[in-house]
Specification:
By secondary structure, this protein is mainly beta. Helices cover 13% and strands 56% of the residues.
């Protein structure tokens, strides 16, 4: 790293201050504000290996296509985030999806980033936990195939060892439809 680049990075991290920024101290108020809390515990409760059944409806009214796979969810950074990797086979072709989800203590929103081996899109969702219905609901808009797509994902833990994730899609003049349903069953440890 060049001296100029080092200076710019240091200025950004330290905010041109001669003393460390509060977020860089281990016991300051900023570090406590960023410590994992109950919102993060909702995510880490999902950690484990799951058998998944995925049902894809590629367009409204089309017959569903069912695939089976494995979801591995692990905790990252002392419970601040989770990472999910789903591997399966769809129409004889292997696929992988990756997702990173966390709770942003500043925005008070859950944030997820999803990518898949089946396309080049990155989906960035934000949303909330509804305590009454006991589920996550995340939303995103992104460009795909010349259109702006809207995605709404509802993740419903139904027991400590089962959950269902439904993704609803719409684009252009096409109304929202349930495009993907993933049924999770936790594997015994």
């Amino acid at each position: 790293m060049s001296p100029i680049t080092s200076f710019i990075v240091a200025a950004l991290v330290l905010g041109n201050s001669r003393t460390p920024a509060p977020a860089l101290t281990s016991a300051g108020p900023a570090s406590r504000a960023h410590a994992p809390g109950p919102e993060h515990a909702r995510l880490t409760a999902l950690v484990g290996t799951w058998d998944v059944e995925l049902t894809f409806t590629f367009q409204p009214g089309s017959p569903p296509v069912v695939a089976k796979g494995t979801s591995t969810i692990r905790s990252l950074f002392d419970g601040s985030f989770i990472e999910e990797k789903i591997e399966g086979t769809l129409n004889g072709m292997p696929f992988t999806t990756l997702a990173w989800t966390g709770f942003n203590t500043s925005s008070r929103q859950y944030e997820a980033t999803r990518i898949a081996s089946t396309n080049t899109s990155r989906i960035a969702e934000t949303g909330t936990w509804d305590e009454t219905s006991r589920r996550f609901e995340l939303k995103a808009s992104y460009p795909l195939a010349g259109e702006t797509w809207t995605q709404r994902t509802v993740i419903q833990p139904t027991s400590p060892n089962t959950m269902v994730a439904d993704s609803y899609l719409s684009f252009g003049t096409v109304p929202e439809w349930k495009a993907v349903q993933i049924k999770y069953t936790r594997r015994p440890k």
